[in-house]
Amino acid sequence: MHSIMKRTVAAFAVAAAFAVPAKADLSGDLTIFLDTSNPAPRATMEAMIARFGEKHPGLNIETTVIDREAYKTQIRNFLTANAPDVATWYAANRMRPYVEAGLFEDVSDLYAEPEIGAALASTKGALTIDDKQWGVAYTYYQWGVYYRKDIFDELGLSEPSTWGEEKANCAKIVESGRACYTIGTKYLWTAGGWFDYLNMRTNGFDFHMDLAAGNVSWEDDRVKATFGNWAELIEMGAFIDNHQTYSWQEALPFMVKGEAAAYLMGNFAVAPLREAGLTDDQLDFYQFVKINPDVELSEDAPTDTFHIPANAKNKEAAREFLRFATSADEQTIINNGANLGQLPVNASSGVDDDKFLNQGFEMLSTNSTGGVAQFWDRDAPAEMAKVSMEGFQEFMVKPGNVDKILAKLERARGRIYK
Known about the structure:
It contains 19 helices and 14 strands. The chain is an alpha/beta fold.
């Protein structure tokens, strides 16, 4: 855990242009807890908080940055005792336990304001439970296949669009002595991404959401078909060895060194790949391929959020911070390619002229007619997400255990959703 105190910051020329008027009477302390511990997100959030602090010189801001994995285990404790005024978290089912426990503040009043209600309409649903809103989104981002274009060119491969083409490409990559995909499943959620895409492409968005809601048996033949498609890749040696020992960051060097050709990941992977030396001439992106031709394409586009804890001490300043963070200008700044490298949630914001942001925006705007999922560990209840992702990781190591794994998940479904 690391804490910083806001005191003096450099002037930002854009400060005067913000559309949301400042409240000059804000005072006291404002405490903000962040899970944005990776370098680019951390720097982006700290710079945004500094800009907010410039507008409110009478406000003392204390920011605490916590490692993302540690944050997930600590959030209930700090929301209950000594809560901050603002906390990062996630939309959809990942916020539900804290809403139902009375630990998040109802911020529906913010959505009644035109500056937020209209501008954030696209993400309002993901922040809504029981017809009330419990936070605001500050970014979302596409998932898809990021790949080494130079390796594809070397092997004479083109971007695939069908499952058959994906497997044919993979066979040539494996034959060249490389893995098709890098992945680190140490923290489980990356395997959840593979399950999301394989299941949505095999069975469709509605089926996937029904499974997340506990309405479908894990031993259903349609679920088995998803695992059958996954097994085809595993058994041809598509994934790097020992992936269960790596975090997602620790899996990046396999792609950087050319030992793996691609990574199914969110757009946040682009910044560290660039920082590691890969150029945009070497990197490219494609939408996860179609498997079942009768299924419309659905995408993972997770939404990251700010919330006001119910036990916050300075809710007036916290609300003003949420207004600021979602303003059109701030959304343009924090999501540009030099910062988060993601997509703004404010409809009046600009999308940075970045190769991958443009591809993601185009994909999500025009070619995801099946639906947009938040991500497996956000769409499924936390307990089911945990046990199922443990099963996904085990399956990737021992695909022959599929019947045993699915039986275990079905038992968990009966316990969790009763």
